[in-house]
Design brief:
- With 445 residues, the protein is mainly α.
- It has 2 domains: 212 residues, Orthogonal Bundle (Annexin V, domain 1); 100 residues, no CATH class.
- Bound molecules: zinc ion (4 copies).
- The site of one zinc ion has 7 residues, from loops.
- InterPro entries: H3K4_H4K5_MeTrfase (IPR050869), SET_dom (IPR001214), SET_dom_sf (IPR046341), TPR-like_helical_dom_sf (IPR011990), Znf_MYND (IPR002893).
């Protein structure tokens, strides 16, 4: 066996990275760690550092960006423009030391895939590229920074699109974007055997199952709460390949993910066969209009999801808690349907942030089952959800149940994050706290 479950497959710092705009002033722009007291770059007043060590490290590339940022302040170019700018800087410097080494494999900037020919044919990507080039030229604004020939910029843009990782915090929320030389070599599966987690900007790929020497190490490039057709469409349009992984061939799972609500009175059984003529449990008639309405409901739910993502960024929790209340969606989609699960997750985060604990616990409890069945085994998403649930139960003093969920979370996070990750350490203190409370209750009774 090559890797036992929970082993470190690789660990590396990014080749280039940027902190997401929404995280600015909360995290260090270099190491991406949360920090109460941040130093500000005195020249551009735009970037922040946890200390002089990070500032110095960042300066190597920031020194060219700094006067440009100062020039366009208070506007800041988008994260993609900033990342592309850094890639261009690296391309121009062309340092022979810029190489990712993993075992016997070396990766350089020139080795990263760019899918240049597909990108040239891709209307949407072309529009995006034109937009980025426009912002980039505005950003440089005739200053002394010289851009390489357009063909090279396009190639770097392609490399950025194909190889970028979303950098997440321990709870799997996006905080930045980066390019990792070794990480970018890993292929995708919707049923992966490894996972990418981050400590600050550092990437660690860990095995989530036992992996034999002849098995390929696979990670997931995408959010997995979606039916195969949607995942495949996204992978094709973003990475130009057709996913044929075991999950994409699992029609039963798709049926569950798209579960519909039966129109029969008090029937709770999900309908998992698209286009079925009647409910397998109560025999309720499912007409053609029912399936037309299904389509509308799914469309509506997807619109709501897109909207909820925007509101989440704006931290508009009051609106988010109402997102699973759309009458059409509720009438037609079963509560275990992935779209509703996604909306309920937003609502749960709303309740948590509004400190409505009872409601939050109720949603977290309900979501545990779908989360466990829709994410692959040992997915960090499952561990993070169970930890949230346990933590909420601890707040409302349901300690026995809290202990059970925290222990379940521990089994998974040990594999997905590893025992040295700060999230795992937070979990251990929650477990200690929970056991202490249980001991006190036992003493009192
Ligand atoms: Zn730092
Ligand atoms: Zn600066
Ligand atoms: Zn797949
Ligand atoms: Zn029924």
């Amino acid at each position: 066996m090559l890797y036992h479950k929970g082993s470190v497959v690789l660990t590396e710092d990014p080749f280039v990275h940027v902190l997401m705009q929404s995280e600015r002033e909360q995290r260090c722009d270099e190491c991406l760690e949360m920090c109460d007291k941040l130093l500000r770059c005195t020249a551009c007043k735009m970037l922040y550092y946890c200390g002089t060590k990070c500032q110095k490290k960042n300066w190597k590339l920031h020194k060219e960006e700094c006067p440009l940022l100062k020039n366009c302040a208070p506007k800041v170019p988008t994260d993609s423009v900033r990342l592309l700018f850094k890639l261009i800087q690296k391309f121009k410097i062309n340092n022979p030391k810029d190489v990712g080494i993993n075992g016997n494999t070396e990766t350089r900037l020139k080795d990263l895939m760019s899918h240049a020919s597909e990108i040239k044919e891709d209307v949407k990507r072309n529009e995006e590229f034109a937009k980025i080039c426009y912002t980039l030229s505005k950003f440089i604004d005739g200053k002394k920074f010289e851009l390489p020939p357009l063909a090279d910029v396009l190639d770097l843009f392609g490399k950025m699109c194909i190889n970028s990782f979303t950098i997440c915090d321990g709870e799997m929320q996006a905080i930045g974007v980066g390019i990792y030389m070794n990480g970018s070599r890993l292929n995708h599966s919707c049923l992966p055997n490894a996972v990418a987690v981050f400590s600050g900007k550092q990437l660690t790929v860990r095995s989530t199952t036992d992996i034999d020497a002849d098995e390929e190490i696979l990670i997931s490039y995408i959010e997995q709460l979606g039916p195969s057709a949607e995942r495949q469409r996204y992978l094709k349009s973003s990475y130009y390949f057709d996913c044929t992984c075991p999950r994409c061939r699992d029609k039963d799972l798709d049926g569950k993910m798209l579960a519909c609500k039966c129109p029969g009175l008090n029937c709770e059984v999900p309908i998992t066969t698209q286009g079925a003529l009647s409910c397998p449990a109560c025999n309720a008639d499912l007409s053609a209009t029912y399936w037309d309405e299904q389509e509308q409901a799914a469309l509506k739910a997807k619109q709501l999801i897109a909207k909820s993502e925007r509101l989440r960024k704006q931290r508009d929790w009051d609106s988010l808690i109402n997102f699973d209340n759309d009458p059409l969606v509720r009438r037609l989609l079963h509560e275990t349907n992935v779209y509703r699960v996604t909306l309920q997750m937003s609502a749960m985060d709303g309740y948590i942030n509004l400190e409505q604990w009872d409601k939050a616990v109720e949603s977290a409890r309900f979501l545990a089952q779908p989360v466990m069945s829709y994410y692959p085994p040992n997915s960090p998403m499952i561990g993070v959800h169970l930890m949230k649930l346990g933590k909420l139960e601890l707040y409302i003093k349901q300690n026995k149940s809290a202990l059970q969920h925290l222990q379940q979370a521990e089994t998974i996070l040990k594999v997905s994050h590893g025992v040295n990750h700060t999230l795992y350490k937070d979990l251990t203190s929650l477990l200690d706290q929970c056991m202490e409370e249980l001991r006190v209750t036992l003493d009192q009774s």
